[in-house]
Q: What sequence folds into this?
């Protein structure tokens, strides 16, 4: 294909022969020089698009030369600009893609229906809300606000920017929808934690005569994972089987993740072992699911099998491994995996990994070691890490001769002075060791500041529905409260009798 273009070029303007010793950069410069000559004689359109794609896909990834091609003329076609914008967007340079669009508009070149989806995806990648809104204005000006492809991408853009109401408005105003439209709004709801709303939209999607595809099922399974709705997750799995969908790597990973997070570890394992293809996310989901539900040895046994399958671990894998070490009380093992993560596998620890390591030490009662670990962290520990250690101080702090609990309490209250949960933990810590005056002072401080303890919450799944209960709640709208409390009293008596045996 390149040879044909060069032969055609020779008919118009014979270029100087290329020196075989020139490097790739020199070749690019000669190509740009050639394009200048073609533009002068009206042959620009013959090779500019091909050269643009060549520069964009080159191993060096340098688009500087590509940028000069469409900028040489106000008469250059919009397709060249679209190619350049797409090239920047796919080269992980979304900000530059937006800049190319602004340059294009300054030259008076009008965008088309292919320009805006690329741009909106670039804005979504960096959550550029203001730029995206300005692009939406251009969409309306050019009469493309009813184009389904543009609208679908706009829903995705607003969802990525956490503007779920704007995403819903675009969706609700659509006169024509596709499965992609429904998937876009479902994904926006899940990304913005509107999980119950995503279920309602799915029902409307089915009632509107749309058949869900693989992407729909993956989104629904993600929603089930976050809510812990095992019954609905099983129903989605049955629909996958009933519709004859191929449980490929993507869909299988979503199923493993859903079953694992919902506590159905056996079912997660069944799906995992039946999969013909697995990637790092599949292995990580299985390891994390096992670790979080007490199957620490199984999770740790899976890690070497993963490496034997030529799959390199990622940050989620090590989160699962550290979680397994925490539940199994493997302090030395936790240190080893934490060290290997960065020094062997080249994965820089994130805050959640540091928190997992603090949890390992805290569960083992090594409070002083956990405190020193936090102080030696290369980044400032967030409140979650300090809260993890403070919780451990409440449990293991009876012989806290180094007064680690007081140091942690002081630091946590400096970071989050208005969070009522922190003050409650401090009051409970004092109460556990019989320091009633200090506990009372903390609660008095809460009262003065107008801080209230958030009610404890638990939930159960009955008949596919999630029922939530709050501490201090005397009745529940969907249950007979009298029978419910009688059952609780019976369970309480049973537990006390077993304890006394």
A:
């Amino acid at each position: 294909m390149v040879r044909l273009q060069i032969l055609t070029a020779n008919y118009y303007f014979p270029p100087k022969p290329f020196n075989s010793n020139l490097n790739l950069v020199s070749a690019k410069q000669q190509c740009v020089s050639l394009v200048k000559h073609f533009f002068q004689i009206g042959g620009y359109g013959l090779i500019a698009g091909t050269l643009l794609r060549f520069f964009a896909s080159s191993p060096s990834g340098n688009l500087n030369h590509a940028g000069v091609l469409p900028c040489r003329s106000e008469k250059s076609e919009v397709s060249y600009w679209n190619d350049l914008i797409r090239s920047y967007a796919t080269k992980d340079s979304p900000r530059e893609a937006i800049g190319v669009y602004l340059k294009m508009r300054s030259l008076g070149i009008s965008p088309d229906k292919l320009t805006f989806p690329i741009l909106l995806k670039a804005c979504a990648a960096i959550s550029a809300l203001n730029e995206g809104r300005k692009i939406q204005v251009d969409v309306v000006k050019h009469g493309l606000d009813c184009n389904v492809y543009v609208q679908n991408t706009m829903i995705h853009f607003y969802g990525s920017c956490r503007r779920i109401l704007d995403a819903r408005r675009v969706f609700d105003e659509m006169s024509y929808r596709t499965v992609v439209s429904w998937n876009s709004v479902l994904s926006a709801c899940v990304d913005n934690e509107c999980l119950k709303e995503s279920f309602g939209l799915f029902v409307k999607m089915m009632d509107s005569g749309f058949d869900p595809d693989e992407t729909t099922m993956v989104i629904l399974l993600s929603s089930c994972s976050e809510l812990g709705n095992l019954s609905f997750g099983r129903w989605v799995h049955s629909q996958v089987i009933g519709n004859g969908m191929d449980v490929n790597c993507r869909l299988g990973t979503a199923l493993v993740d859903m079953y694992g997070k919902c506590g159905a570890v056996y079912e997660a394992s069944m799906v995992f072992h039946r999969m013909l293809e697995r990637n790092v996310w599949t292995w990580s989901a299985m390891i994390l699911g096992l670790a979080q539900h007490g199957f620490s040895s199984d999770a740790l046994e899976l890690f070497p099998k993963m490496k034997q399958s030529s799959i390199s671990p990622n940050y989620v894998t090590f989160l699962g491994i550290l979680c397994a070490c925490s539940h199994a009380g493997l302090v030395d093992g936790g240190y080893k995996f934490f060290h290997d993560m960065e020094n062997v596998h080249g994965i820089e620890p994130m805050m959640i990994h540091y928190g997992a390591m603090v949890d390992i030490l805290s569960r083992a009662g090594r409070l002083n070691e956990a405190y020193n670990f936090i102080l030696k962290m290369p980044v400032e520990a967030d409140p979650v890490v300090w809260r993890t250690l403070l919780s451990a101080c409440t449990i293991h702090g009876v012989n806290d001769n180094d007064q680690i609990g007081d140091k942690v309490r002081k630091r946590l209250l400096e970071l989050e002075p208005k969070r009522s949960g922190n003050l409650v933990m401090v009051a409970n810590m004092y109460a556990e060791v019989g320091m009633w005056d200090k506990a009372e002072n903390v609660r008095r401080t809460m009262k003065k500041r107008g801080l209230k303890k958030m009610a404890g919450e638990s939930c159960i799944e009955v008949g596919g529905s999630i029922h939530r209960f709050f501490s201090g709640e005397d009745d529940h709208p969907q249950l007979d409260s009298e029978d419910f409390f009688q059952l609780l009293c019976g369970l309480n008596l049973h537990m006390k009798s077993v304890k006394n045996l």
About this structure: The CA atoms of residues 154 and 232 lie 29 Å apart. Residues 1-22, 41-46 have pLDDT under 50 and may be disordered. The first strand starts at residue 457 and ends at 462.
